[in-house]
Amino acid sequence: MKKLLITGASGFVGQNLMPYLDKYFQTEILNRVQLNIIKDRPSTDADVIIHLAGKAHDLKKVSDSDEYYAVNYQLTLDLFEFFLRSNAKQFIFLSSVKAAADSISGNLTEEISPNPKTDYGKSKLMAENFILNHELPQGKSVIVLRPCMIHGPGNKGNLNLLYNMVKKGIPYPLAKFDNKRSFLSVDNLSFIIHQIINKGISSGIYNVADDDALSTNEVVTILSASLQKKAKLLKIPSSIIIFLARVGDYIHLPLTTERLNKLTESYVVSNSKIKKVLQTNLPLAAKEGLILTSNSFNTNNL
After folding, report:
1. Cα radius of gyration rounded to whole Å, the chain
2. What is the mean pLDDT for each group of 10 consecutive residues in the chain (302 residues)?
3. DSSP-based three-state secondary structure for 146
4. Domain for residue 103, yes or no?
5. Can you tell me the distance from the alpha carbon of 293 to that of 298, in angstroms, rounded to the nearest whole number?
6. Is 275 part of a structural domain of the chain?
7. How far apart are CA 203 and CA 206, in angstroms?
8. Which of 171, 246, 296, 298 lies in disulfide reach of 232, CB 3.0 to 4.6 Å?
9. What is the pLDDT of residues 71-83, one digit of tens each?
10. Beta strands of the chain (E only): which ranges?
11. Which residues of 111-132 are buried (b: 16+ CB within 10 A; e: fewer)?
12. What is the CATH number of the domain that holds 85?
């Protein structure tokens, strides 16, 4: 049985991934204190190191920018150097599509020339570049996973806000905007990581996303159905919404141009590369995964 050494086990992804991996592998958790002093640890008997720990993207923009580089870049380097001097064969690094681009037109593939705009994306890209440009000893491989927006039980963020809006019966006012966004069920992510460990793939960058992109209107409809409610979609003319957002830029309304763009932009991520190399299909369709997440919100009474 392979042994895994995992960082970030207490985070959202880790809390969902650990029960999944514990069924197939022997696992050891490396907590933040142990990660901070990883330079002092001589080696490990783990076969695979999975690096989930990181400083998450702060949507409220109150985080110290230096913290992103200290956590997402420097700690990743320290752990990677530990991997190089250990007997572990695989290093799996959970990066982000934001290391590639904050906004895109068309489908995001691994061939894009990265151009992140935020400290979060830049720090992730710096870590990617370091570990991928490093010459590896024979028999070792480095897998960089770039997931899009991950959701599942315990999820925090915009999907929760949307769910609570639906739960309170508040109509979704941006239904006139037509967009498509990729999502990633944490169950599909867990499946992909399991497959990578079992099958082994070449070093490189791999996008991870559900198969189908969904519009925000579709997401509202799915969340509404899970609450046994009829979706309330207000089709206010987009010109009015854009005008209100511009006003919000000046008088600090909850809706600003930047926030409107984030809510209505398209961000479609291709997962064809990872599926091709693993020669597998994902267990959950995008809508099925969102239903499971929404049901978990119901259970937790968000």
Report:
1. 20
2. 95 95 95 90 92 77 78 95 95 97 92 94 96 93 97 85 90 93 97 95 96 95 92 94 93 85 91 96 95 86 56
3. strand
4. yes
5. 9
6. yes
7. 9
8. 171
9. 999 999 999 999 9
10. 3-7, 26-30, 48-51, 90-94, 107-108, 141-147, 149-151, 183-185, 204-208, 268-269
11. eeebebebbbbbbbbbbbeebe
12. 3.40.50.720
- Residue in the block written with tokens 């992730």: 124
What domain range includes position 119? 3-155+182-210+268-283
Q: Give the whole-angstrom CA distance, residue 244 versus residue 3.
A: 55
Total count of domains within the chain: 1
On the 0-12 / 13-18 / 19+ scale of CB atoms within 10 A, 64 is exposed
**Contact between residue 30 and residue 5 where contact means Cβ atoms under 8 Å apart:** yes
Dihedral angle over CA of 277, 279, 284, 290, nearest 10? 20
Average pLDDT, the chain: 92
Give the C-alpha separation, 212 to 181, whole Å: 9
Single pTM value for the model: 0.93
Q: Which residues contact 79 (CB under 8 A, 6 or more apart)?
A: 7, 35, 38, 49, 51
How many CA atoms lie within 13 Å of 99's alpha carbon, on the beta-carbon side? Answer: 25
- Identify whether 70 is part of a domain: yes
For CA atoms 142, 39, 137, 195, the dihedral sign is negative
Instruction: Note whether residue 290 is domain-resident.
Output: no
Q: If we measure between CA atoms, which residue out of 1, 204, 2, 195 comes closest to residue 93? A: 204
Q: Identify any residues that bridge with 149 across adjacent strands, giving them in sequence order.
A: 183
Beta bridge partners, 147, equal 208
Single-letter residue type at 14: G
SS3 268: strand
Instruction: Name residue 30's beta-bridge partners.
Output: 7
